Amino acid sequence: NAGVTQTPKFQVLKTGQSMTLQCAQDMNHEYMSWYRQDPGMGLRLIHYSVGAGITDQGEVPNGYNVSRSTTEDFPLRLLSAAPSQTSVYFCASSGTEFFRYTFGSGTRLTVV
Amino acid sequence: SQKIEQNSEALNIQEGKTATLTCNYTNYSPAYLQWYRQDPGRGPVFLLLIRENEKEKRKERLKVTFDTTLKQSLFHITASQPADSATYLCALDGNNRLAFGKGNQVVVIP
Prior knowledge:
The complex is a heterodimer. Chain A is mainly beta.
């Protein structure tokens, strides 16, 4: 099925560990974004990309890295996990008109 | 600073009535505004988009209005059903990216 695929769905990390959240879309969308969602905070933009090879920071980029080597994939790397990064992470993609985003099902990350 | 404000209190509404949600924004000049639906444990799902030069948009039982003078959008669910119970998010474009409000929960009581 066409859409945005995120893996893993759940993850528990220890403080200081690193990991990569995977995101792939098969709709040939140019725009891709990573959001985190915390209770009472809504969706906050971490990083985004307007095309392969182009990334930029969003509202809360510290502690995260991204790269966009292909149109399809947009992985999010946590460099050294901290408890403050406990959250639900959503990847989203959009065509070039109107940022009508398709979201993945999310990754629930707990850092202990 | 830029803000997108939605009511933090859940809206409890009787089945069959019209639910109305408000989205207010400051320090944005959006070319369009979007509404998404989010169910617990799932990602947001796009519902409607309205452009700055449109006053109203409809899709089945959903209606959105957009007043750029008031900097406000209203989202209506007519003839509400228990299946409409969810959180509804308002989103605005700004600097080539989409910013979201915190969402407003709707509970439709049978």
